[in-house]
Structures are given as structure tokens and as C-alpha cells.
Amino acid sequence: MIDYHALILRSVAGLDPNTEETRRLVYERTRAALANHLQALNPPLSEGERMQQRLALEEAFRRVEAEVAKAAQSGRTFEAFAHAIFVAESLRRLAERLDQSPYGAGISRGADGAMDLTSPRTPADQATTTVPFFEHRLSEIRRNAEALDALASPVAEQPGWHGLAHAARLTHNLLNQPTEEVAREVAQLWILSTCLAAHIERNEDARSGHATLSAPLDPDLLQALREFVFVAGPWVRRFPSGRALDDLAREQEYPPEHVEPAIEFFRRIREAGLVRDDDARAIWIALDAARSRSVPAAKARSWAIGTVANIATAMVKELATIPNAEHDEAIDDVNASDDMAERIERVIRESEGELLILLAPRSDDGGAALREAFTMLKQTPDDKGQPIEE
What is the pTM of this model? Predict the structure, then answer.
């Protein structure tokens, strides 16, 4: 059966002016065109089949009228409202082929127009804090983190080491929280300690001349870094969430050449305000550490690229949610959703190359649905469909 809703929606979206009278004329012409079309069919349809076609067309008129009212209620032009529907339809097939990966942080839509990051967390993490000598070891790690932060701070502006300085500062701040809060931040501590370990290997590359962007670290800073990683790495793995993240990171490997596309895509996400500052800092640190080729860098790469790809997946699924003209949403909610959709669509439109790298491997069709979605996204609201010709 013809998709009458899409046909009428495109025709009405192209009306200028878009009034009740101009829409009524479109509906009358389309009814006449359908009658002529059905009359000319050979072999002819049964009376029941013809009635089904006519009812489907009338239902399309009803839906479009509901969408016109919803667009007016939300303050959007109908052209913009219809375009959001077309974009959603173009991405639905792709969204059905994509799922978030366990190798990065989980992503959900936040209430403030940004994406929420969620990481593994279990009551068993809190139970770990009750084992003997836990507080003693935590005190030791806190001292190491404080010393590392103090020594790393001066290299924050040096090429190749800004990620080290920021990771040291965030780690120090996290560990200075009460014990129960520390246990809630195991995932964050895992990625930060993994990134810090990657910087030890980066220093070896810098010392041997393989890392052209980095000068070797001061010996005192390097020693503080090694002492912290030596203690913190095994300590984080004592938490069930830490072990789970470490094991997952060993299962999935992304090639180093995928890091720069992930960085470029995440830059656009950040500029569009689709992630919060605290979450963005951890992702930036992990992407920076992921540039190296060591084992810790490979684990950081698994988490960082997995997280960025999960954000992309969540964005596609969000944009594939068609505006519902019959659902009684508050105007503020509608406008907030529309604003988020516009920001997401802008980022996706600008990121075809990066998304083909990040998302195509997750699809079982080799990226065909992704390429089709981009073809349709490139259509503008001015690409109008035509009613059935008489």
C-alpha cells in the first residue's frame, strides 16, 4: 500500500501559504487522483480493497491535520515539524540495527538536554570497603595521588602531557571524597588509573624519540606516577566494577587510527552541549591516552571509543523518535526536545565520515543503513514530494 501519510505530509509541508483552505484543496485533489488511480487499475481491486485504500488516505489526512495543530501549539513552522518527522523516519531503520556496546559507558537522555553517562556499579563495591586494611590502603593511595597531582600540575600546558595533569587532578579529587563516595566512583577511578598507566608508556616513547609531541617527564614526576599506578591499579581491580571494566577492555580492541575520528566527533558533541563538563573531561582524558599503543592505552581506547560510539548510537535513536502529534506533551517539553533534536541533527550531518568508522562495524549490513540514512539526511525541508497525479 502507498504510504499516504508521507505523501500528504510532504505535500502539505510545501504549501505556501499553509492554511486550512490550501490544505483542503490538496486533500480534494488527492481524493480525486486516488479515485482515478483505482479506477484505472487492471486487474481491478475488490470493493473491500478499494475501501481500504480510501480509508488509509482519510487516516493520512487526519494525522497530518493533528500534526499541523501540534506544530502550531509548539511554536514551530509546519515545515520544520514535518522535516523532523522525515529525519526520524530516515534514521529509524538505522536505529533498529544499532545497540550500545558494553565496552563503553552506557548513554541515556538527560533531562537537561545533555546525554547521561552511566557506568557499572554494584552494591558489592560498597562491601569491598569493609574488608580488613581497606582504609589503610586507601590512605596510602590518597597520599600517592596528592603527591602525583602536585608534581603533574606544572605539565598541564606541555604538549602530550595535559591529559596526565588532568587525570592526576581528577583522581586526587575523587579519592578525597568519603569512602562510600569513592566506592560509587570506581568506574571513573578505573579509567583514570588506566590512562595514568598509559602515560608511563608514553614517557618511554618520548625518551626513545618515538613520541614527537612529548618531551620526557621529570624523573620525580615519573617516579610518583609509577608509584601511584603500581598501587592503584590492583586496588581498583579489587572492586567488582573495576574488575568487570578491566576484563571488558581486554576483550575489545580498536585500532589506534580510530582515535582521531572519535576525537573529531566528540569535539562536535561537546561544542553542541550534548555532554556535561564532568563527563567530557573523563572522555577527553581517555581519548588522549588512547593515542598510544601500549596495553593500558589499548584499554583506554576500548572504553573511550566504545563510549563515544555509544553516544552516537543514543543520538541516532533519539533522532529516530518521531514527533507524536497525538501525545499531550507540555510545550516546554516539546521545545526542549526539539532543541536537542536540532543539535543532534547538526552534529550527525557534519560527521558522516566519523560515524561510518564508529558505527558501521556495529551494524550487520556493513554500514548500508548508515549510508542510506545520510543520503536522506542530506535532503532539505525544500525537497517536497508530490501528490498522486491524476
Answer: 0.81
